[in-house]
Amino acid sequence: MRQIKQPGIGPAERVQWVECHGRRFEMPLAAGLPLLEAVRRGFAAAGFTSGVLRVDGLALGPFAYVMPALAKNREHAAFYSETFRPFGVTRIERGAMTFGQRDGMPFFHCHGVWTEAGGKRSGGHILPDDTVLAEAITLEAVGLDGAAFVAEADPETNFKLFGPVPAAFHGTSLEGRFYALRVRPNVDLAEALESFCAARGIKRAVIHGGVGSTIGAHFEDGGVVKNFATEVAIGRGGVTTVQGAEIDVALVDFSGATAAGALKRGDNPVLMTFELVLEAR
């Protein structure tokens, strides 16, 4: 399996996780607000401070983003491009977001693929502080109770990355069994989720959210992304004991090329990180 050497050494446990409660809900977002503030209000109105959501259909402007890029030195295995600020309204085709805290303040990690006002199709990492909602929309979200995503320094990658940590339980939700996860570098995403579920007797789980990167990508239909640095968003996915993990994604690589499809099981190792929520059913 493809591997990328990271600047540091990570823990032997390759999946960071917290079991918690959660609730699926529809999140209305108002036009004219910075995207970060709109999402913060949406989670707060439902009683949550952390969670994940799909961002398909967002209309954004002003809008700022970065793409994956080659590292400039040995401090990182890959890095980010310069900031892009397309004119007009950009429309997200497919995307996912993790919402939590960084340095004690609300923050999000969001990847997607979109079409800019001039018709250019692109994708990458949406910048929270420089992006505004151009139109009102209602999105699918999952709030977490008893766990939260918090950005912390990661010695393995030398980035500050979201990971799940235990949090106070407020009784906001008692729905099902939920697990907040971060999958670490150089392990296959599908196999990591399958092993995680098998170890806990989970026969069926639905994936919510899903933001991260893979070392290129190999798809079930034979498609291949050779460039190793990607930004990936899970569209839909799940894990069953019969079929294993089925993960449908959209991504952009460091050349700016986009791709989408079902990831091939056993052939898509994580590059830097992958955050998601599993709902056991």
Outline:
By secondary structure, the protein is mainly beta. The protein is built from two helices and 18 strands. The strands form two sheets. The chain has a 16-stranded mixed β-sheet that branches.
**Termini separation (Å)?**
31 Å
CATH architectural designation of the largest domain = 2-Layer Sandwich
Relative helix content: under 10%
**Tell me, what's the shape?**
globular
Structural category is mainly beta
The total of beta strands comes to 18
Rounded mean pLDDT score: 97
Order of helices and strands: EHEEEEEEEEEEEEHEEEEE
Uncertain parts: none
CATH superfamily of the largest domain: Hypothetical protein, similar to alpha- acetolactate decarboxylase, domain 2
